[in-house]
Design brief:
Length: 102
């Protein structure tokens, strides 16, 4: 399974990167490949490419603000969360998405 994710918070500093790190760690534990784009104070980092979109199974949006270029996910199963949810329990976020995919 290959997931993509976008993390962003209003300030774009701590929570954005904590959520991204936790999602990466939780996915790795589960044997799931993930690419996490951050949209923060530094701008867009680790941007999800067209190739990523073609091969991904689903997308996680962990954000308290409107993310940039969200229309690129219109044809991809996507689940949205508040940015603090993967900070508190990234395993539950990934489990919920995987379960929804069936």
């Amino acid at each position: 399974m290959y997931l993509v994710a976008v993390c962003s918070c209003p300030v774009g500093i701590a929570h954005t990167y904590m959520a991204a790190a936790n999602l990466k760690k939780a996915a790795q534990k589960k044997g799931i490949e993930i690419k996490v784009e951050t949209q923060g104070a530094q701008g867009v980092e680790d941007e999800i490419t067209e190739e990523d979109l073609k091969r991904c199974d689903a997308c996680i949006i962990a954000s308290d603000v409107k993310i940039k270029n969200s229309s690129r996910f219109k044809d991809i199963p996507t689940m949205s969360f508040k940015v603090n949810e993967p900070i508190k329990d990234a395993d539950a976020v990934i489990d919920e998405l995987v379960e929804a995919l069936g």
